[in-house]
Write a structure and sequence with these properties.
By secondary structure, this protein is an alpha+beta fold. The protein is 37% helix and 11% strand. The chain is built from eight helices and ten strands. The strands form three sheets. It has a four-stranded antiparallel beta sheet with strand order 3-4-5-6, with no helix packed on it. Helix 1 packs across helix 3, helix 3 packs across helix 6 and helix 6 packs across helix 8. The model has no long low-confidence stretch (mean pLDDT 91).
């Protein structure tokens, strides 16, 4: 992620509503992927600082309706959206939220939307999601559901995170650090985060956009395997089998070995991890990588160096590695395949 600065020169961060140094209001503009500093007035429009050169059309920008809610969304509504639209392109994708009458749910909802906005940021930077609303975005929706483990008043016994035809379902309890840690231990995972869930599930969505809709299933099978294999049977074998060795030479995670669709989604999530984290490293001077056309090998090598530094820093603090993964030549080839698809795609219009 890029670094952002208020007009006063003080560094501000992606989710900030105001500058802690000068008090100016802050708002992120997904249309041009930048942070404005200025003032929200009584008309609930955002006015960038007077020294910012803007045309008459954007002198007053509309804030997301959820800015003053539990969500604290600091995004703006696109200029190309209809005047009836009251939420930003990220917030409007949420279809079901957890019951806000439950004590922990306002915080959970806030954390879920924060992670989703960070996901959207990367998709916008890669130009595979439109900042202007429109038809291509309307099929993507999110349900944040609860089960009896976190809310005894609901009927669902168990909510499974998943994706079906553009609808991504997440268990709202995943926004709790305690729940995340418990599930990580139970599943034997090396890494589990709320943002990671979003990045994984959006991978299933983009399989449809970048593979199925473009009839590239053959090319996909050459790299990831045949996705026509029965999904339920494959997952049952994955959970039943005793021998889980020798997966690291072919897969990014153990779960990726369960089925080609999961291999794709896991690899896609790591692609987004690398894109966002490497941009952050460049922004803070930890890397001098400069993106160029068709430079996957340089990108991959620089990530190997930066992730090594990240892990070393954490070890110095007595903490676990933030990126505890080995990227084999086979996994590198899968990341290359995704990178080439993204470079060739422009889904923003």
């Amino acid at each position: 992620m890029k670094r952002f600065f208020c007009h006063c020169g003080h560094e501000v961060f992606f989710h900030n509503l105001f500058c802690e140094e000068c008090g100016r209001d802050l708002a992120y503009d997904p249309g041009i992927q930048t942070m404005w500093s200025g003032e929200i007035r009584r008309d609930h429009l955002f006015y960038p600082h007077p020294s910012v050169k803007t045309n008459a059309k954007i002198e007053g920008l509309r804030i997301c309706q959820l800015r003053d809610s539990e969500v604290n969304c600091n995004w703006l509504i696109s200029l190309e959206d209809s005047e009836d639209e009251c939420q930003c392109i990220s917030c409007r994708t949420t279809r079901i939220i957890p019951d806000l009458n439950q004590e922990k749910n306002p915080k959970r909802w806030r954390q879920l939307e924060r992670a989703k906005r960070q996901l959207m940021y990367t998709l916008l930077e890669l130009k595979i999601y439109s900042p202007f609303g429109g038809d291509m975005n309307r099929d993507l929706k999110f349900d944040f559901l609860e089960d009896k483990r976190s809310n005894p008043n609901v009927t669902l016994e168990h909510v499974l995170t998943g994706h079906t035809n553009g609808l991504i379902t997440l268990n709202a309890a995943e926004a709790d650090e305690g729940f995340l840690h418990t599930m990580k231990e139970q599943m034997g995972e090396r890494y589990r985060t709320l943002l990671g869930h979003f990045r994984h599930e959006i991978g299933h969505y983009y399989w449809q956009k970048l593979i199925a809709d473009r009839h590239l299933e053959g090319a996909f099978r050459d790299v990831f395997g045949d996705e026509r294999e029965d999904y339920e049977q494959a997952l049952q074998r994955y959970y039943d089998r005793g021998n889980k060795n020798h997966w690291m030479s072919r897969y990014i995670t153990l779960y990726a070995s369960s089925h080609p669709h999961e291999d794709w989604a896991e690899t896609w999530a790591h692609y987004l991890h690398i894109v966002d984290t490497l941009e952050t490293a460049v922004s803070y001077g930890l890397s001098v990588y400069e993106p160029k056309q068709n430079d996957f090998d340089n990108w991959f090598d620089e990530w190997s160096r930066v992730s090594q530094v990240m892990n070393a820093l954490n070890r110095s603090m007595g903490m676990a590695d933030p990126y505890p993964f080995v990227l084999s030549p086979v996994v590198k080839g899968k990341l290359r395949f995704i990178d080439e698809l993204v470079d060739a795609a422009d889904l923003t219009f």
